[in-house]
Amino acid sequence: MTLRSDDLAVETRGLVKRFGETTAVDGVDLSIRRGGIYGVLGPNGAGKTTVIRMLATLLRLDGGQAHVLGHDVRSEPAAVRGKIALTGQFASLDEDLTGLENLVLLGRLQGFAARAARSRGQELLEAFGLGDAAGRQVKKYSGGMRRRLDIAGSLLVTPELIFLDEPTTGIDPRSRNQVWDIIRTLVDAGTTVVLTTQYLEEADQLADRLAVIDHGRVIAEGTPGQLKAQVGAGALNVRVVEAEDRERAAEILAAALSADVVREADPTALTARLDAGARASTALTALEEAGVEVETFSVGQPSLDEVFMALTGRKPEPDGDVAGDEQEAAADGGDHGTAGRAVDDEAEARTR
Amino acid sequence: MSTTTNGTSTVPAEAERIRHILVSRQDTPQRPGAVSASLTYGWRALLKIKHVPEQLFDVTIFPIMMTVMMTYVFGGSIGAAVSGQEAGGDAVGAYVQWLIPGIFAQTLVMITMYTGLTLNRDISKGVFDRFRSLPVWRPAQLVGALLGDQVRYTLAGVIILVVGFIMGFRPAGGLPGVLAAFLMLLVFSFCLSWVWTTVALLMRTEQAAMGVSMFIMMPLTFVSNIFAPTESMPGPVRAFAEANPVSTLVGCIREFMDGVYDIGSITAVLIYCAVLVVIFGPISMFVYNRKS
């Protein structure tokens, strides 16, 4: 294994961070290629932010090694800082200053002369659709505007690598889509993006590779497709015409698929896990034969939600090399039928 | 697949603009030097004053209050002892000449404490994460904040001197003496501020920082020659008061305002200044770099 291969943007081995008694990051190994979007997915408190802060040279390592763009974060932090940008979890902006002042400040700190910093700031504000808000204090910005300004603040000098810590947490769906588009544009322009998220949909939408982190450990790593494949199942979503038929339908599906059936909030909707080998068509036929009228049905790939549940629904085994031990995690995952809600990103069919 | 279906119609234009600004910026500027970075952070502090002028309360009302209150409360009695005159109006008049330089120093020294409190509040905000991730000389963030505070100190100092003048303060050293005293006081305040940055960085909350700062501040300003000559104090207190850097500072400022420029006093103050920075500057940076 090479520690400083040139095509890696980030490489860590056995990364550890302790805060007093708690071990926030417990031996994280990551290999993130240059280019593309790498997602770090995990629930609150999993250690995602701690990992990012260590990679961005804001926190000292308590163990292990980390190289960012070929530089050791311990011995060459200044070199790392010169090539990366960080957009923190809580807007990394000065709320009292205006949008333009924030960018001029950051521009000057990157070495622009006063006038150049101003024109660069204005250019960025225009590009991010914040031109009209240039003279307004950031505390009066909406959540989405803040986020965009925050990302603009990372681009005064185009970084080789940008860390985005939960870039869309707490903003409305429209702003979220804007942020996603910005992130995709960054990647097209050649910047490597490492983002953390607790939204499975976000990781699914953006990341071309991801690591799932729980309790400070990487419990799975791969492309979103690989992770879904590891769970080895999809989901069948069924909506019956009459709400009173749902209970009967649930029993029929459970029997036909020998799997757990989740009753959704919608009183007519059901979601059943499709384990490997289970036939959705058989189950639908069974419903039809029993005289249950089906409004719609769809077969979805397992969502990352389900992947996550499958991977973390059990206590992670402390023994062995958990990071990268995907096979075991996947094999276990299939047996735990606590399915989350599937995203219908596959076929959807109407029966009537 | 369901990806990229959201708002596709509006995206290309924006994406194009963003791509344009990314590629249009190939020549990365030289990193700023320590001085330039510090001045930039100082500029930030000034912008904050511009946007949140309320924060000037402590450097406007407080100095007026201190000057008027201390002079008229203690003026009659201490003034009599200091000047040898009868207690009362004349004693106050004489005391003003002696006290105003002391109040001038005391108030500014007390205001330096707010530097630490502001920093404690500021540093917990996300923007400091970004500052710390920039390839910039790290102490610049603290130095800049202290430079910005010089503006606050100057404002407070001017107010005290104006109020003092109204109350009858007439420095024998004239304008040059007052300016020299002012400059010396600003230098000392800058150096003393490193004590408060250390406290602010070590304490988790602003309240704790306030408590510790007050604990240091009270003896530092009151057990000194500001209100009464140290000769009047009992042994140990007198020893403390005479070793107190604030006494040395106030002694020097009184001399300046009287038109006396004594190399010995100036050197003594500058040595205290250097010692404060040499000890508390590195401690502040050590704590700052390890702050999570």
TrEMBL record, chain B:
Chain ranges of the ABC transmembrane type-2 domain: 54-291
Superkingdom per UniProt: Bacteria
Cell compartments where the protein resides: Cell membrane; Membrane
Alphabetic keyword roster: Antibiotic resistance, Cell membrane, Membrane, Transmembrane, Transmembrane helix, Transport
Kinase is among the record's keywords: no
Topology in the lipid bilayer: Multi-pass membrane protein
Keyword presence, Membrane: yes
PANTHER family documented for this protein: NODULATION PROTEIN J (PTHR43229)
Name of the protein in its database record: Transport permease protein
Species for this entry: Nesterenkonia halobia
